[in-house]
């Protein structure tokens, strides 16, 4: 009788083991599908830096506690170098200015002290995301953006998932961000041409018509830009945030104490940057301590997602 009864527990154990294996396989498959869904939607994996990596990143950018460190980041061709030059009060061909060009000219992060020795600012021209030398989804971590005091997220024609990733990660590390759209003068002029303006046929006597076209094009460009950024932030489940629309030449004039006649957000951007930077007193180490327990559990994980 004992020999007849023994196969039954073994069979039950085998069935239980099979059920457990099937459940594990189901969970693994669900996790894989979720990862694939996130990747398809542009929610790319990021690596949370370790304390050693944080320290190394600070050494790499020559971080100083008595300085404020601004990173100007964005996709290739968005005009980062020109904006850095404007912030520093330099024209593109002046000695010490960041190199500018149609193609991506910044291949390594470049450190630029402020042109005025009285200003405790350091500006960083960050390589553009989406280039061969800087993979899009690793942009924030590859560039060590988590060590900066402030990040300017610059875009030109479109708001991208790279911009969203920077904003999401900056919120994790409590780093202030400013969304900036550059080349406003170029965009407004292009909009005027779409409305029928022809510079070659421009008659100096028809100033009124040109001014009306300019005002209409300016309003259209500003409204479309603000709406586009708002929609993109909502789609990424990020809170609404102001976008600063600027012309680099206008910004440069203001930095050089030459107030231009036509401005959009250049004055506000400079004022808000200064107000923000002087109010930022929380050290990076304190920020890391404030990361919640779940983040700390994933501190060394290669599979966390934004």
Can you offer a commentary on this structure?
By secondary structure, this protein is an alpha/beta fold. The strands form 2 sheets. It has a 6-stranded mixed β-sheet with strand order 3-4-2-5-6-7, with helices on both faces. Strands 1-8 form a two-stranded antiparallel sheet. Strand 3 and strand 4 form a beta hairpin. Helix 4 runs parallel beside helix 9.
Percent of residues in helices: 40-55%
| Estimated share of beta-strand residues | 5-15%
| Terminus-to-terminus distance | 61 Å
Question: Which geometry do the CA atoms define?
Answer: globular
Structural class: alpha/beta
Largest sheet: 6 strands, mixed
Strand order of the largest sheet: 3-4-2-5-6-7
Query: What is the H/E order?
Result: HHEHEHEEHEHEHHEHHHHE
**Number of contiguous helices:** 12
Number of strands: 8
Low-confidence stretches are 281-285, 291-306
Global Rg: 26 Å
What do the pLDDT scores average to?
78
Topology summary:
Layout: H1 2-5, H2 7-40, E1 45-46, H3 51-60, E2 68-73, H4 80-87, E3 110-113, E4 121-125, H5 139-142, E5 150-155, H6 161-172, E6 177-181, H7 184-194, H8 207-235, E7 243-245, H9 248-255, H10 266-279, H11 284-290, H12 293-297, E8 304-305
Parallel strand pairs: 2-4, 2-5, 5-6, 6-7
Antiparallel strand pairs: 1-8, 3-4
């Amino acid at each position: 009788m004992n020999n007849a009864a023994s196969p039954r527990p073994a069979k039950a154990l085998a069935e239980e083991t099979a059920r457990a294996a099937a459940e594990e396989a189901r969970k693994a498959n669900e996790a894989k599908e979720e990862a694939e869904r996130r990747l398809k939607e542009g929610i790319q994996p990021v690596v949370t830096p370790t304390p050693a990596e944080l320290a190394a990143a600070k050494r790499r950018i020559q971080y100083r506690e008595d300085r404020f460190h601004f990173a100007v980041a964005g996709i290739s061709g968005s005009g980062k170098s020109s904006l850095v030059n404007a912030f520093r009060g330099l024209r593109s061909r002046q000695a010490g200015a960041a190199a500018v060009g149609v193609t991506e000219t910044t291949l390594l992060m470049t450190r630029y002290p402020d042109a005025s020795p009285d200003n405790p600012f350091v500006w960083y021209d960050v390589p553009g995301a989406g280039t061969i030398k800087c993979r899009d989804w690793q942009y924030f971590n590859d560039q060590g953006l988590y060590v900066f005091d402030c990040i300017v997220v610059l875009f030109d024609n479109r708001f991208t998932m790279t911009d969203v990733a920077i904003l999401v990660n900056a919120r994790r590390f409590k780093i202030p961000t400013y969304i900036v759209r550059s080349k406003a003068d170029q965009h407004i002029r292009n909009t005027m041409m779409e409305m029928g303006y022809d510079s070659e046929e421009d008659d100096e006597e028809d100033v009124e018509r040109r001014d009306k076209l300019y005002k209409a094009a300016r309003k259209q460009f500003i409204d479309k830009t603000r709406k586009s950024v708002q929609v993109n932030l909502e789609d990424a489940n990020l809170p609404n945030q102001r976008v600063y629309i600027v012309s680099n030449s206008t910004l440069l004039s203001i930095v050089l104490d030459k107030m231009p006649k036509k401005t959009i957000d250049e004055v506000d951007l400079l004022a808000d940057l200064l107000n923000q930077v002087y109010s930022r007193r929380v050290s990076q180490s304190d920020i890391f301590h404030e990361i919640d327990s779940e983040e700390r559990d994933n501190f060394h994980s290669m599979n966390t997602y934004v």
